[in-house]
Amino acid sequence: MSEGRKGVLAMVAATLVWGLSGLYFKALAAVPPLEMLSHRTLWSVVFLGTVLLVQRDGRALAALFRKPRLVGLLAVSAALIAANWLLFIHSVQTGQALEASLGYYVFPLCAVALGYLVLGERFTPVQRLAIGLAVTAVVVLAAGLGAAPWIALTLAATFSLYGLIKARIPRGSLLTVLVETLLLAPLALVWLWGVHRLGWHDIDGRAGGLFGSGLRTSLLLLCSGLLTGGPLLLFSYAAQRLPYATVGLLQYLNPTLQFAVAVAVFGEPFTPWHAFAFALIWTGLALYSWESLRRRAPSAS
User: Fold this and answer.
1) What residues pair up with 207 in beta bridges, in sequence order?
2) Which of 90, 82, 131, 126 is nearest to 109 (CA)?
3) End-to-end distance of the chain based on CA atoms, in angstroms?
4) CA-based nearest residue to 210, from 223, 198, 224, 221
5) pLDDT value for 300
6) Tell me, what DSSP letter sits at residue 208?
7) In this structure, are residues 227 and 24 in contact, taking their beta carbons and an 8 Å threshold?
8) What are the residues facing 17 on neighbouring strands?
9) Is 3 helix (H, G, I), strand (E, B) or coil?
C-alpha cells in the first residue's frame, strides 16, 4: 500500500472518530459536562503520556516546559480547546448537535477571516464570496429561529483561535496537546474532587460523581483519553503523507457525520431555515475548497 493511501485511510479514520463522537457523548448523557470534560482531560494525559514514554521523547517535553513563552501560548490554547470541548459536550447532551455541526462547517471560513484580521492576509474574490455566504447563512438562521446560533459561532471562533495559536508553535501535535492537557489537569482534579467529596453541582445544576458507580460508565469515561488522543495521532500521520489541501477537504467529513448523526440518529428538528442556511454554508465551502485547490495546483505540478 502506498504512503498516500495510508495517509488517506488514517485521515478518514480520524474524521470518523471525530464525526461520530456525538454518539459517545450521548451515551454518557448522565455525566454532567464539566465532569465529562475533566475525565477527558485526565485520561488524555494518561494516553498521550504513555505514547510519549513509548516513543522515549520525554526530553522534548522537559525542554518545552523550560520555555515560558511557549508554555504561556499553550495555556491560552488549552483554555480555548477546553471551552470548545465543553460546549460540544453540552450541545450534544442538550439536543443541539445540529447547531454544533454548523460551527465546524463555519470554522474554515472563520479561520480565513482571522487570517485577514490578525495576520494581514488578503481575501481573493472567491474567498470573499464564500465568507459572505457564511455570514448570510448565520443571519438567515438567526432570523428564522429567532435567535443567533451562538453555539455554532462560539465553536467556530474558539477552534479558529486555537488553530491560529497552534500554527505559531513549532512543535508536534502530540507534544503540544499533552502539555495542554497537563496544564488543565490540576483544574480537572480539583473539580472531580469537589464533585465526589463535596457534592459540587455542574454548570447545568446536576450532581455528578458517576465514575465508579457502574462498569459501563466508568469504562466509557476511561476511553475518553483514547477518543481524544487516537484521532490526533492518526491526523498527524496523515498530515505527513498528504497534501494540505487533501487533508483540509477530508476534514469536512467530521461536520458532515455530526450533521447526519444529529438529524438521523438523535432526531433533532431540521427546519426549512436550517436547510437554507446549510445550503449557503455548503455552497461557500465548495467555493472555498475549489479556490484552495486551484491556487495550490501550480505548486503541486
Assistant:
1) 201
2) 131
3) 23
4) 221
5) 42
6) -
7) yes
8) none
9) helix
Closest CA to 34 of 177, 203, 199, 184: 203
Convert 239-268 into a string of H (helix), E (strand) and C (coil): HCCCCHHHHHHHCCHHHHHHHHHHHHHCCC
- Quote the domain boundaries for residue 282: 3-300
Question: What per-residue confidence (pLDDT) applies to 297?
Answer: 58
Is 261 within 8 Å of 85 (Cβ atoms)?
Answer: no
Please choose, from the candidates 185, 198, 249, the residue with its C-alpha nearest in 3D space to the C-alpha of residue 15: 249
C-alpha pair distances (Å), 22 with each of 28, 87, 137, 227, 273 = 10, 12, 24, 11, 23
Whether residue 209 contacts residue 196, with contact meaning beta carbons closer than 8 Å, is answered with yes
- CA dihedral of residues 144, 148, 149, 150 (deg, nearest 10): -170
Cell output for 6: 495510508
The count of domains in the chain is 1
* Structure confidence at residue 244 (pLDDT): 61
Tell which residue, 48, 27, 34, 82, has the closest CA to residue 218: 27
Q: What is the mean pLDDT of each run of 10 residues along the chain (301 residues)?
A: 81 90 93 94 94 86 90 94 94 93 85 76 79 86 85 91 81 83 96 92 84 88 90 80 70 89 94 90 84 61 39
Residues 83, 203: Cα–Cα separation, whole Å: 13
| CA atoms within a 13 Å half-sphere pointing along the CA-CB vector of 298 | 2
- The number of helices, as runs of H, and strands, as runs of E, in the chain is 13, 0
Q: How far is CA 21 from CA 10, 15, 297, in A?
A: 17, 10, 34
Look up residue 193 and give its three cell numbers: 474532587
Other beta carbons within 10 angstroms of residue 209's beta carbon come to: 17
Residue with cell 498527524: 236
Query: Quick one: angle between helices 97-118 and 150-166, nearest 10?
Result: 50
Nearest to 247 by CA among 129, 113, 108: 108
Buried b (16+ CB within 10 A) or exposed e, 12-51: ebbbebbbbbbebbbebeebbbbbbbbbbbbbbbebbbeb
